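2024-03-11 09:14:02 DEBUG pipeline.ingest accepted 1 chain
2024-03-11 09:14:02 DEBUG pipeline.ingest length=89
2024-03-11 09:14:03 DEBUG pipeline.predict start
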Amino acid sequence: MTETQAYDVISDTVLAVLLASGPVLLVALVVGLVIAFFQALTQIQEMTLTFVPKIAMIFVTLLVATPFMYATLKKLSDAVFDMILSGGL
């Protein structure tokens, strides 16, 4: 395996991880900002108000985004296994 091939595998892996985790992280960020804005406007500083909606939306996002996450990681693993079979790794 050359340095270029190793770099390609590593960059594909990092990209796949970012794509797979992106929807969940984006939803957590948006929900957190909305809740923080709501708390700043109403001056309600309840701790459960920050966690319960965020966890619920993350769970819903995981249910919706699981096929996309699976397809992304399967594409990466298929490419790596093909490289192993061809003797590239």
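2024-03-11 09:14:41 DEBUG pipeline.report Residues 24 and 58 are 6 Å apart (CA to CA).
2024-03-11 09:14:41 DEBUG pipeline.predict end
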